[in-house]
Amino acid sequence: MSAPYTTLPEFKYVRPKSLEEALKLLKENGDAAKVMNGGVGLIGFMKERLVEAQYIVDIKGIGELKKIEYVPGKGLLIGATVTGNELLEFFEKNPEVREKFRALYEAASHMADAILRNRGTIVGNILEGLPYVDMSGPAVLFDAEVHAVSLEGERWLPVDGLVLGPAMTQLFPGEIVTEILFKEPPAGSKSTYIKLQSRTEYGIVNLSALLSNAGSPGKRDVRLVVTAATQLPYRAREFEENLKKAERIDDVLEQEAEKLANSLDVIEDPYASAEFRKHLIKVLTIRAFKTLSR
Ligand SMILES: Cc1cc2nc3c(=O)[nH]c(=O)nc-3n(C[C@H](O)[C@H](O)[C@H](O)COP(=O)(O)OP(=O)(O)OC[C@H]3O[C@@H](n4cnc5c(N)ncnc54)[C@H](O)[C@@H]3O)c2cc1C
């Protein structure tokens, strides 16, 4: 790679100790300021000149953003600066919560590697907005919402629809995501994450799937999110509805998985053709729901 893409432009770096101070710094510096979390994504974007920032507000020193809490009936609250490794440690100590949010646990175990997971955060991973990031699928699967705070006020935003592309989101300049809530899954549900990689750590097709009450059409819950194969996370609503109302999942699974795969506008790149990705979506969807209904 040539020089401009391996060097960082000059910028001013600040590491506020409180959320209020960080919000003030963002407001004062407008579009020139960017939030830095783990920095794994942001620094890369800056080197590639995909993101311009004259002012970096590093939020890692803000103590209140470093928390993980499971609230029965509500869900799993994860503070903005919680890293992949910290989430995995929490799951090791709380196996019941891990099983409730199994797809999130499996995805976090596959997020890059142990060194990157030491810095990369759950929230930063989602907001990075690249198609293959591992946290976005489980976030959409568990109807997650982020808490966005600015000097003007606060709001909760669903992760489904939050991301618009690489480093592009529905957040306003001046807003900081302080936490993310992965909502309590249906009682007795099982979930899983399947990541299919090709020569790199990035997935070419990632699936997040959830199933409850497999044997009872009236009570059954079915959820499926496709990532990595599509530019943005795709919640397969029509597939979910058709599986929910089927008398037996096995009767319709193959046909619905094929319909889903053919309906998607998938990525074509040097790692996998669109045709291969569609084939994988079909095969892996069948595998996910066969495993979950066992
Ligand atoms: C070699 C390599 C391999 C990788 N492999 C994988 C992989 O296999 N799977 C995977 O999922 N990822 C992978 N990644 C990506 C990596 O996991 C992400 O870059 C990282 O998780 C991003 O998190 P971060 O905390 O570093 O975010 P940052 O880089 O700090 O931020 C990312 C973006 O989100 C914004 N942002 C972050 N936090 C907030 C907040 N609280 N409020 C408002 N805006 C915010 C930033 O301004 C920036 O635009 C890989 C990266 C590298 C370099």
From TrEMBL:
Residues 236-263 form a coiled coil. Keywords: Coiled coil, FAD, Flavoprotein, Oxidoreductase. It holds the Pfam family CO_deh_flav_C. It comes from Fervidicoccus fontis (strain DSM 19380 / JCM 18336 / VKM B-2539 / Kam940). GO terms for molecular function: FAD binding; oxidoreductase activity. Residues 6-187 form the FAD-binding PCMH-type domain. The lineage of its organism: Archaea, Thermoproteota, Thermoprotei, Fervidicoccales, Fervidicoccaceae. Gene3D superfamilies: 3.30.465.10, CO dehydrogenase flavoprotein, C-terminal domain, Uridine Diphospho-n-acetylenolpyruvylglucosamine Reductase, domain 2. Transmembrane segments: none annotated. Signal peptide: none annotated. This is Aerobic-type carbon monoxide dehydrogenase, middle subunit CoxM/CutM-like protein.
